[in-house]
Specification:
The complex is a heterodimer of chains A (330) and B (352). By secondary structure, chain A is an all-alpha fold. Chain A has 14 helices and two strands; from the N terminus they run αααααααββααααααα. Chain A has a single domain, classed as ABC transporter involved in vitamin B12 uptake, BtuC (Orthogonal Bundle), CATH 1.10.3470. Helices cover 71% and strands 2% of the residues of chain B. The longest helix of chain B has 27 residues. The chains are: A mainly alpha (330), B mainly alpha (352).
Chain lengths: 330, 352
Amino acid sequence: MIGKIFRNNLTSAILVIILILLAIVFYAAQIGHMEGPVLLQHLVNGISLGSLFALIAIGYTMVYTILSMINFAHSDIFMISLYFAFFSITVFNMPWVLALICVAAATPLVGLLIERLAYRPLRGAPKNSVLISAIGASFLLENAATYLFGGRPKAFPDIPALTRVISVGSVNFQVVSIVIPIITAAILVILINFIHHAKTGVAMRAVAKDYEIARVMGVNVNGIISLTFIIGSVLAAVGGFMWGAKYPGVTPMMGVMPGLKCFVAAVVGGIGDINGAVIGGFILGLGEVLIVALFPGISGYRDAFAFVVLIVILLVRPSGILGSPVAEKV
Amino acid sequence: MKNINGKTVLTLGVIAFTLILAFILNGALDSYVRRILNLCAIYAIISLSLNLVNGFTGMFSLGQAGFMAIGAYAVAIFTVPAELRASGFYLEPMMPLLANIELPLIAALLLGGLLAALVAFVIGFPVLRLRGDYLAIATLGFSEIIRILFTNMQSVTNGALGIKNVPQLSNMFLIYLAAVITIALLHLLLTSSYGRALKAIREDEIVAEAMGINLLKHKLAAFVISAFFAGVGGGLYGALLGTVDPKNFIFTLTYNFVLIIVLGGLGSISGTVIASFIITIGMEWLRFFDEPLKLFGIEILIFRPGLRMVVFSVLLMVIVLFFQKGIMGQREISFDMLRRIPLRFGKRREDR
């Protein structure tokens, strides 16, 4: 029932969730005697981290709806995009906007390659085989990155336009913390309109619903699947670029943790729903930042937060916040 | 004791031969080879435990690294000599309750296995209702939570510093004995009515339930037994390494065992054992990829550290994509099968 109310009235649902989160935060802040500006600063950080999670989570949720598989390699596509960004700025001396465009253009090639080589041959194979293939693809990308770029962390180049600190009143934050939510919101609006109104978007939803019938109706299923991977990779690339600007330090294994958390975000929000991925991303991003800010004593457990949320959601509402329960077909 | 026949005697003979061989090789081999062979047996134990859940019961768990960590820490905490502990725990002294308890290795191994089984029991109740990918991601999440807990329990596990000075285990006989016991117990389990129920669940959950198999009870049993063996295997792994550190048990460790059971065949004990040896020895053998290579006086540039893992993961993908059944599929090596091999070749000759 909750899912139905939320789905029929999305904007208000998102507002309600944000309001509930804010109420919790202010209550917690009062207990912790935190001052307004400090809290606001943490909120800005939490929202920007949440937006990054949302960008990557959309890629997971889109692939899951269409192929019903966890694309484990998505986190490594994110990692590869960071290396692309690193090289385009340090080696090719590109200005950052051009680098962003190049990275967003190059990363989907990796996504397409993986879909072509690792997933397409297994279409129709048992689910576990596909899952194992996804794990293998992720493993291969990580090892290839270690081999090609070395295991030592590389410092992501400083982009003054993004990392400059601006102060509003007594709140200080980096430009990038504001840019990320704006970009995420813009992409979200474009994507939702595309999926609901463009012809290709409708075809995409048809494939997600039932790809046999979609094929009969003349939809190019393989093309749609490739397109899904392209969109997911572009979002991961944009997210990766912004991630690098905010948290410099690029290593071959860096995608693993954010990737897992973003998949968790997709599940928490309700897998198969782009809005759900965004809500899940915000819950995890805000939660993680605020837990560390409000209870410094347990900051060592910040990575566990996502998994605790995941397990609670799976037990209470396995289809996620926005998802609708699916009856088992016999 | 009425069905003692030739096959039982043969089986016991093979077991005795393996153990005697392990005992003799223990004295004859140098420490490097011995270490690799020990690792093979330990990987076999853990892969078998994973295969019980993933191959025989048809669930998909990715939590083995977490259960291994529990076993390894049980061994590390209780077998380090009490007087050596203070030097390791210099950030925060060890919890006084634990600081003076010393256990022999075997007791610590069993304790680790039982603790892992207990954790699996507690986790399993809620989690095993999930299916497929959701179960995979939830077990993976739990394995990460266990690791994060261990990283933060400074006074028990020494946090990120890890526990050093674990008395090293290099006795091949003991490790191979553990492996043989694991294989024997799993074989007995899987040929019993419980084992057949597990396989029925793998083939079709709904039909199995309709036939009166209690799904949750059987899945939970498989999960708990699997965690026990993973805990014991993890304990042996910790004792073999000599240091136990949370970073060893990051969830990518589980991928090694997934690879082994896929190569060996999901649902085959003998396949898993064979694959454990192939993969562990193969990983060592592939080391030459990591060293610079000179051919005809020219240095081949692609040979540098990291290539080994790339080759390894490419091989994994090839197996997953083209040999989905693995080496053995769901079959087992048995004496009947060995006897049939010459017959099969004979038949081919006749065909010609």
